[in-house]
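Hey, I'm writing a tutorial for new members on how sequence and structure tokens pair up, and I'd like a real worked example in the thread rather than a made-up one. If someone can provide the structure for the chain below, I'll link this post from the tutorial.
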Amino acid sequence: MKRIRYSKYIPDPAGDMSMEDLLSALSDYFLQSGFNDNFWYELPEGEQTLDELRRALEQALLNGEMFDEEMRDRLQQMQMEGELDELIEKLIERMQQEDYISIDRPFEAQPHDPSRQSSVGGQVGDAQPQAKFEITDKSLDFLGFKALRDLLGSLGKSSFGRHDTRDMATGIEASGALKQYEFGDTLNLDITATLSSAIQREGLGLPLNLEYNDLQVHQCEYQSSCATVLMLDCSHSMILYGEDRFTPAKKVAMALSQLIRTQYPGDSLSLVLFHDSAEEVPLSQLARVKVGPYYTNTREGLRMAQRILQRQRKDMKQIVMITDGKPSALTLEDGRIYKNAFGLDPLVVSQTLEEVSKCKRAGVLINTFMLASDYGLVQFVQKVTQMCRGKAYFTTPYTLGQYLLMDYMSRKTKTIH
């Protein structure tokens, strides 16, 4: 008689682990902004090494909260038996196979090649560059979705898409008062009001003659598309004073991008980083951007944002600026950078407000999210707000996303066409 022997199932962490849970545990590492580095700003081509990823994985496995008690005991036992490194290698291989990361391995010299010596007499292998990796668009999409889900969890359900304005237009969804039909309107007739107008004119009788002036149509709120430029301050102050303000800002930008793609497909979102100068950065490269030892050239950021908005054919145009410092730099006509980090420099402030005035004349709204509350900065931001009829939010890195997404979805900032 054939016998079947059953044994206790021992889970395989490398195969059973959820990649989504693992990415969630590594999200802070993937989106780090240089808070723990040497204050160096990396352009989009910056990459991270596999050794750093191994250390981050080890910390996530041993100190994370994504496992139950049995699995944590299993991982600790693997660490004591020296098997944890093998598990980490399997996880990295799985992440690569499932297209969450891409690995760039440098050319490795043969270990016994005597002709290849380093300049200091050692083997070339000792000085070879480390293998590097990049997170893929698949990972960025997941991290953006996770950030959006976490932020919307405290806001509740939101309506689907579209931006309300103060204008009224005829359409299928009736939400406004009636109006007399004009040529070009959608013929969304209010039958009761149309017949009542004809009866009041001719009395109750058959046949009932309808005239052009009797036609009454429903109105609905005019809904338009919006072009948004997100301006992120990446000056050194964003990681000063023992607090990382730039990483939460990056997460908000990714969440906003995910929100626009899923609920506002007619909208556009662009990203501008401003420091000593300013540059446009693709949203797909946002996770690789870090802060650096720079000043705050707000005027140059506004200039860049206006050039981007001029290319967009949208009814509504707005700038969302996230900063924690005062404008302290200015690009002069000859290309030199004028810097003054002490107080509010009158030249820098006046030139910045002049650029704000240009935004107002172009119909561009500016909403400012300030991560500081100094008296001088409050006055400056209030001046910007008054000039552009925008809004100012004095918030913290922990509530920044809630304020920004709530403002974007509620459509409290409206344009009069």
